[in-house]
Write a structure and sequence with these properties.
Rossmann fold; 4-stranded parallel beta sheet; 37% helix
Length: 269
């Protein structure tokens, strides 16, 4: 079925145009556009990891959400800006300009349909800045359009109670967290016998610079890892994945509720 992890009653493509036209209070209906990626995740995980995680978290959140709160998911955008991984076979990448154009035109279509609250739910760490540019440009063009460029991992969750300090700092790709989640949601796609530990060995020491901190340096994956893994997937378990999925989806329930109630600040009124 088209909806996959998403509850069918929350999947916008299953509605007719007259269903949408008849929606009450359309300007406060929360529309969620999942944005993922198809890119390498080491020898043990499938190339669809980011998309799978985003859709599983969103689906679980929409199952938990109060049925009276109007929120709908769009089909996932499976391709993203993944050029940091393009040295590894299987990675499919769009340019930043293409992602910008696709998301802008999708958003404008929703705006014409009367929707005014759009979540860009990103599950790939290589493109949050692209979604932030889209959101700002859309709101600048349409003052009553509220657009939220959000990363799936930025809601409250319990990873800090499940992962080691080293993994929390450095396990940014195909490590414990992502592998545990895949063991929970798509266990048949995980090849744990191929999992290896691969932390970057030549990061700058005693420096303010880091891979993804406040003062980052540019990198591509092969600078940091020959396997494509950045982290330790060998410690992953399904039980960790179940707990991560539950906590992330709880966080997303709260975010969707907040967005439904949100009104754009306007000091010029």
């Amino acid at each position: 079925m088209m909806h996959g992890f998403i509850p069918p009653e929350r999947y916008l493509p299953y509605l007719t145009w007259t269903d949408i036209q008849a929606m009450p209070d359309r300007e406060n209906v929360v529309i969620i556009q999942p944005v993922g990626a198809i890119e390498q995740h080491g020898p043990h995980l499938p190339i669809g990891v980011d998309s799978a995680i985003g859709l599983a978290v969103l689906g679980k959140a929409l199952e938990k959400l109060d049925q009276t709160m109007p929120a709908y998911a769009l089909p996932n955008l499976y391709y993203g800006k993944s050029n940091e991984h393009w040295h590894f076979p299987g990675t499919i990448t769009l340019s930043a300009q293409t992602v910008l154009a696709v998301l802008k035109e999708v958003a404008e279509s929703l705006y014409r349909s009367g929707f005014r609250k759009l979540v860009l739910m990103n599950s790939h760490g290589g493109q949050p800045q692209v979604l932030e540019i889209v959101a700002r440009d859309l709101h600048q063009q349409y003052a009553d359009f509220m657009v939220f460029p959000l990363f799936v991992w930025c809601v409250p969750h319990i990873a800090d109670t499940l992962l080691s300090p080293q993994e929390l700092e450095l396990g940014i790709h195909a490590g414990d967290a992502e592998t545990s989640l895949l063991l929970s949601i798509l266990p048949e796609s995980v090849k744990m016998e191929r999992a290896i530990v691969n932390y970057p060995s030549n990061l700058p020491k005693d420096s303010l610079l880091s891979m993804e901190g406040k003062l980052p340096f540019a990198w591509v994956t092969r600078d940091l890892s020959q396997s494509g893994i950045i982290g330790d997937p060998t410690s992953a378990t399904k039980e960790k994945g179940d707990r991560l999925l539950d906590s992330l989806s709880d966080g997303w329930v709260q975010v969707i509720q907040d967005i439904y109630r949100f009104q754009q600040p306007q000091s010029w009124r």
